[in-house]
Amino acid sequence: MNLQENIQRIKKVMGLLTEEEKPYENKPIILIGPQGTGKSTTAKVLSKKLGIPLIETDMLMIDKKYEELCKNEPGVEIEIKRVNGGISYTSNKQYEFCVMNKIFDDYGNQKVVLDVGGSHAQWDKNLSEPIMKLFNSTPNIFIFNVSENEDETYEFLKKRREGRGEKILPEKELRFKKIINDLRNFYRGKQEISIINPDKTEKTTDEMVDEIITKLT
Predict the structure, then answer these.
(1) Which of 43, 134, 168, 191 could potentially form a cystine with 115 if both were Cys, beta carbons 3.0 to 4.6 Å apart?
(2) pLDDT for 12-57, tens place per residue?
(3) Integer-rounded Cα radius of gyration of the chain
(4) Please, which residues have CB within 8 angstroms of residue 57's CB and are 6 or more apart in sequence?
(5) DSSP characters for the chain?
């Protein structure tokens, strides 16, 4: 690393870079990970620290704008019911893929933090290549996990969720394990953010935010 790169890194860590000097270009910063990794909390803090918008795919999947844009697309199945302030939502992956494309139409060349919900980060064989092509339009993809060991990751996330009062029913355990494994395999080779330290203690949200900022390209 040359002197200029060292100066840039120090400035970045200290939050002294100007907007023009930001190293992550005019591209979204994509955060992906299974439920319980702290991804969404990290996304909120990262968005605030960088002073850029937070875009949550969970919210846009039920946004009327994207529903109208995608509901008549070929192969799309979508049903959103809005009653008494509540929302009931079912769809197929073709709808989620359409919404992702529209999100990138809107934000693909902007500095935003894109929080991709766990279910929206999983893709079947027919959509895996086009969605990866879409995501690869930004160099800033970060995958949250615990370790390369599937069982260790599952048990850690299970305990963390139970500590928050959530219950993982036995019939949902296999599905949760599959999500962990599928996400790791699908996004293998992308920049990883482990939510634990080498000594197995949990990283704080601020530590993960600082790690992402340091890794931004």
Answers:
(1) 43
(2) 555 555 545 555 678 999 999 888 889 999 999 999 999 999 999 9
(3) 18
(4) 99, 100, 103, 114, 115, 116, 117, 120
(5) --HHHHHHHHHHHHT---GGG-TTTTS-EEEE--TTSSHHHHHHHHHHHHT--EEEHHHHTT-HHHHHHHTTSTT--EEEEEETTEEEEEE-HHHHHHHHHHHHHHHTTS--EEEE-GGGG---HHHHHHHHHHHTTSS-EEEEES-S-HHHHHHHHHHHHHHTT----HHHHHHHHHHHHHHHHHTTTSEEEESB-TTSPBPPHHHHHHHHHHH--
Strand partners, 91: 78
Which residue has tokens 């840039």? 8
Token output for 156: 């850690």
